[in-house]
Each structure stands twice: as C-alpha cells, then as structure tokens.
Write a structure and sequence with these properties.
- The chain has a 10-stranded mixed sheet. Strands 1, 2, 3, 4 and 5 form a 5-stranded antiparallel sheet that branches. A 3-stranded antiparallel sheet has the order 16-18-17.
- It is an alpha/beta fold.
- It folds into 4 domains: 130 residues; 72 residues, Gyrase A, domain 2, CATH 3.30.1360; 284 residues, Rossmann fold; 76 residues, Arc Repressor Mutant, subunit A (Orthogonal Bundle), CATH 1.10.10.
- The protein is built from 21 helices and 18 strands.
Length: 672
C-alpha cells in the first residue's frame, strides 16, 4: 500500500502492461482472499462438525465474540470504518457458522456466499479507492484529528513547516462552524497531540469567520534560561526595536514605543502586569536597559521600593524618585510638559515624535521661524515616564491618576510605562486601562487573565494563568508593530544574574556620557512645576545637566528681580537685632492650655515661610496633613491651614492637583 501511494503509476515492473496491472491490483486483493478463506473455512468446518449441536454453540459464541472484539478494537478509528469492519466480521462469521452446521451448499447458503461475498469485498475495494484517490479530492490530511476534537468536515491546507513551528491554514464548514469553535477546541487539540495548551494557537483571518491559521509549536524552547549579556543596540535610536527576550520558536521578542509614520505604527503606552514571582522585575530590567542604551531618549522613573532592583541603572535616569510626594510631583510635571512638548513639535512641523526631532533643527522644513529659514533649536528627545509598583501610586493619588497622561502624552513624544501586579478595575480606572494599548502579560492568577490580555488573544490560545509564578519571565506581548499572529505566542525575557550588575553600572555611565539630556522646553516645564525637585541627569563629574537649572546656576540674562525673597520680607533689615522676648514665650509646652498664639499677620508670614521650606526641600505637593507638626509648633488649627492653602491658590502660589486636598507649590520664580 505504501508503494502504491508513492508510485501510483507503476512499481518496479512498471515498464510492462502486465506489471502495471499487477501492481495496481495488489492493494485490492486482500478482501477477495478473505472471501475465499471464508468459503474454505465453511467447507472444512462442515467436514469436521456436521450436525454437531455442541459445535454450533461454540461457533455461535465465537462469532459473537469476534464481532464484539472488532467493534472494541475499532474505537480509535473513524466511525464509518468501525461500523464497516464490524458488519463485515459479523456477516462472515455468521456464514461460516451456518456452513459448518448445515453444509456450504445447503439451501441458500451457497447463493449467499456467491452473491454476498463479492459485494462485501467490493465495498472494501471502493473504500480503499476513495481513501487513496491520487487526485486528493476527498479524505483528510489530518489523520482524523479534527473529527476527534469536534471539527469534522473542516479542511487543513498545505502546512508551512519552520524550525519548531508548524502553521496550517484551516477552512471550516460553511454555515456550520465558526472561528469561535476552533478557539473552544484548542485544549482538545493540544490533548490529542499530547502538548500543553500554550503550544497550540489559532489566528483567525480578520476577513473571514471560517478561516484562519492553526499554529503548533511542538517543543518548548523557553525552558532553557538565557542570561542578559548587554543591550542589543547600544547607541541606536529609541525608534528601533527593543529586544527583551525570545519567543518559543526562537524568534526575538521585541517591541516599539515611538510611532512610525512610514509604516503607520502608532506610538504606545505600556502595561507590565504579573503576579508575585512571575519575573516582573527582570522583565522591567530588560526593557529599561534597552531604553537607556539609546541615544535619543530620557527616562523619568518612580519606584516606591527605593530602587531595590534598579539601583545600578539609576545614575542613567534623567529623574528618579522613590514614591510618595515625590511621585505626586512627577505626575504633575508630566502633565505640565505635555502641552509644552506638543506646542514645540507642532511649531517645528512634526505631527508626532520621530528621531529627527531629537536632533538640532537645521532643516528648514522643521523650523519654527517664518520665511523657511532653519531655526537651529535644540532637539527634543523622546520621554519615557515609568511608574514602577504603580498600585502604590494609584492608592495615594486615585485610580485615575494616570488617565490624563495616558490619553494625551503620545502626541507629545511621551510613553507611559505602568507596572503593577494586578491591573484590575478596582485599582486602575477603566479609562486609564483603555489608554494602555500595549501589555507585557506575565504569569498570573487564572482569574486575572482578562485584566491583562484582550479577549481575542485569550481566545486564540494565550493562557498566562497556566504559569502563575512557576515560570518566571514567561510572557505574552501585545503591542503595535508586532504581527497579530504573534500575540498568543509565549515568549520569555532574559535573566539578570548577579554578574550583570557590573554591566548595568557601565550602561548607566554610558547613558550619562552619551545619552540624551532634557531639552530646554521639557526641563523648563518640569522645573516650573517641580522646582529643585527636578535637577536632570547628572554628568559623570557630578555637574547638573538640566537646562533650566543650569541657566539659574550659571547666571543668564533673565531679570529675577534682585534677591530671591518674598515681597512681604523685602523691608526686613538682615543686620537688625532680633526682637526681645515677649510675654508667653517661656510658657511650658505641656500641662498648659495654650502658649503664645501668633498674630494673623505673623501667622501668614510663618505660613509663607513654611511653603518656602517645602519648596527648598523639593516637596512640591502639600496638603493639610503636611502642616500637622507646624500647627502644633505655632498653636494653629488644621482648618486655619486649609483656609491659607486656598488663599495661596487664589494668588497663584499653589495650584490644585487631581487629588482632593493636595496642592502643588508654584515655584517662587514663576509665581504670578
């Protein structure tokens, strides 16, 4: 039979007509040999057991047993073949029993043999002809797999075989089956192939409800841990792919943050989600090291865990804070730089950020000057605003803390990166989650899969809940620029062993010397909100690189109005003696009802001094709770402080944040 399939037009003797006919007849001979053998068995049985009642009982039981065994053994075959085999055995064994007892020529027994036997043999010949039709019109190339999993009549096309990856086009029965049926059958297909569910994926054709590609990856190439050896493209542009690992078929796992107008790829924000022990920290290290190795990007990074994982890379950041009030300031600064950067990009003819925007603007087509002359403005690097362990920030600032940034920042050349364990709707607002189109989904609780990945990716076979924390670094990546067929393909990020710390420190030093620094527009907008809380990335020699602060420290042509003092303190003589003691100054602090209470004018002066102290310390977001110790020292009530905060907001010294009861200090140099 094998030689027939391989050489349908003849065998070794195919040069002669006789050899050709014999070769074609060979596969059809076995049913006829079975017919002849049945007749011989009936004749010999009658010679041995004529009119023997005991033999009749034995032959009947043997006939029933043989038919039942045939039915059971046919369980693994198709339904039609099972029935055909059982009927053939039952008919043949019944005739043999009758022939043994009554004789092969008694009554109609010989007629049944001469007419029924050839019919049964021919039925097998017809079945074999249809099954092995060289034209290939009927039959299935899946070996009955689709029928077993409930997709009978579906057709598998010519498979594309790659190293450790098989892609087969699938066409479903019109009007009877849909792509949803395939998604529901993926677990059964994996079971039939003895593979994990994550090894079988289905990518529906967006133009058809009954066509798609079935992808099978037989070997898990992610089991072997691959260590990080350094960035993939040191000195390249942030617009080039960021390589963070590999897929299960060995292809590089990569993503993009900026958009590309040539390929119509959109700029994106990124969510990194994964449970405890899923490898979220090392995944973040992969991505951050790739970003810092590029020449035209700056990073603002918030980590409430005090940079436990990211300390070696911290010197390469343009701005790093450790959570709390400092993170509040960073959020407000990002909001402030969005319109400033958008205005600059628009003035220079950029509809979105591209690598040329980070270079000195010597192209007349990207000039902010009228008349078509090059303006020579400093370039504007891409900005990545990263909030690690963002659940902490969201608890402090509210679940919509990032909503405005996520909705507006992409057009300003800013990518928001949010990392947290469980991106559920009780932690992050629906609007924010909808504005984070890209995700790196690591292992999680099966109940949380829907929070991390789109439903269409889960239907295609993605299953991060199967990993939990047992396979650190395993992930799915959904992001613009990645082929949608790759979305349900698992990948694994690179591991960071202890020896990688030295390489990360060298990378941070490289970023200080060769990486981008904040442009004047971004630096001025950030300093206008954060004051001295934002100093920019230091150079290796420790000098300040922030354009705004450098202008103040080096001295420029700006008129700052003389000494940096509050107007109400301008008349104070710094050489005058301090006032003498007053009544009540020596009153004991404890055990007394009250001490000396300052006058309203003095209290307002003290309040202004308190704001100046907060500003000098870099705490640019304050509220009544920050004045509790101050109230105790000066015998003032919290409601009184709340009123002073509102007054300061009215005169421009404070601005309201998106959190009730929290105010942003407007630096003194930019106050109205």
């Amino acid at each position: 039979m094998t030689s027939y399939l391989a050489q349908p037009h003849g065998g070794p003797d195919g040069g002669s007509v006789r050899g050709y006919l014999l070769h074609r007849a060979k596969p059809h001979i076995p049913p006829w040999l079975g017919w002849a053998g049945t007749g011989l068995a009936g004749a010999l049985g009658h010679w041995r057991w004529p009119d023997n009642a005991a033999a009749g009982v034995g032959l009947t039981l043997a006939s029933v047993a043989l038919t039942g065994a045939t039915w059971l053994m046919g369980k693994s075959t198709t339904k039609q073949r099972r029935i055909h085999s059982a009927v053939t055995v039952a008919a043949g064994s019944a005739w043999v029993t009758a022939a043994c007892l009554a004789g092969p020529t008694a009554g109609p027994i010989d007629d049944l043999y001469l007419m029924g036997g050839p019919v049964v043999a021919l039925s097998w010949n017809v079945r074999m002809t249809l099954r092995h039709n060289p034209e290939g019109a009927s039959g299935s190339s899946d070996g009955g797999l689709l029928e077993k999993v409930g997709l009978a009549r579906a057709q598998i096309g010519q498979a594309k075989v790659e190293p450790n990856r098989v892609t087969a086009p699938l066409a479903l029965e019109p009007g009877e089956q849909t792509n949803d049926d395939v998604s529901k059958a993926l677990a059964r297909i994996a079971s039939a192939l003895d593979l994990p569910k994550s090894a079988v994926r289905y990518s529906p054709d967006p133009d058809s409800e009954r066509r798609g590609d079935l992808v099978i990856v037989p070997e898990d190439m992610l089991a072997a841990v691959v260590d990080w050896e350094g960035p993939s493209n040191l000195g390249g542009s942030i617009a080039e792919p960021l390589v963070i690992g590999r897929y299960d078929d060995g292809a590089p796992l990569q993503l993009w943050l900026p958009g590309d107008p040539e390929t119509k790829r959109n700029s994106t924000h990124l969510l990194i989600a994964g449970g405890t022990g899923s490898g979220k920290g090392e995944t973040a290290l992969n991505l951050l090291s790739e970003i810092l190795s590029r020449r035209d990007v700056i990073v603002w990074f918030s980590d409430p865990k005090a940079f436990q994982d990211f300390a070696p890379l911290r010197p390469g950041l343009d701005w790093g804070v450790e959570g709390g009030t400092d993170t509040e300031v960073m959020v407000e600064a990002v909001k402030a730089v969005i319109p400033a950067r958008t205005r600059w990009l628009g003035a220079h003819g950029y509809r979105q950020w591209v690598p040329s925007a980070a270079e000195t603007q010597n192209d007349p087509e990207h000039s902010c000057r009228p008349g078509g002359q090059a303006c020579g403005c400093p370039g504007m690097p891409f900005l990545v605003s990263w909030f690690e362990e963002a659940a902490n920030t969201l608890r402090n600032l509210g679940d919509d803390a990032f909503t405005g940034i996520a909705q507006e920042a992409r057009s300003a050349g800013i990518s928001l990166v949010v990392s947290l364990q469980r991106p559920s709707y009780d932690q992050m607002s629906t609007s924010t989650r909808a504005s984070l189109p890209s995700v790196i989904a690591l292992g999680c609780d099966p109940r949380d899969e829907g929070f991390s990945l789109p439903e269409s990716v889960l239907d295609a076979g993605a299953h991060p809940g199967a990993w939990g924390n047992r396979r650190p670094g395993y992930c799915y990546v959904v992001s613009p620029g990645i082929d949608e067929g790759r979305y349900p393909s698992p990948g694994r990020t690179l591991a960071f062993p202890a020896r990688a710390v030295k390489t990360m420190e060298l990378l941070a030093t490289w970023a200080q010397r060769n990486g981008a620094h904040a442009d004047p527009i971004t630096a001025d907008a950030a300093s206008g909100v954060a004051g001295r809380a934002y100093v920019g990335r230091p150079a290796p020699d420790g000098t300040v690189q922030s354009a705004a602060l450098r202008a103040v420290e080096e001295g420029d042509e700006m008129d700052h109005g003389g000494l940096l003092v509050d107007p109400e303190d301008a008349s104070i003589d710094p050489e005058a003696e301090l006032p003498g003691s007053q009544e009540g100054d020596d009153a004991p602090i404890f055990g007394q009802d009250t001490g000396r209470k300052p006058s309203p004018e003095e209290a307002r002066r003290l309040f202004a001094d308190a704001l100046a102290e907060f500003e000098a310390a870099g705490q640019m977001v304050v509220g009544p709770k920050d004045f509790m110790d101050w109230c105790d020292r000066h015998n003032l009530s919290r409601p009184w402080v709340s009123e002073r905060l509102k007054e300061a907001a009215m005169v421009g010294r404070l601005e309201a944040t998106n959190t009730t009861g929290r105010w942003r200090i407007v630096p003194a140099l930019t106050a109205a």
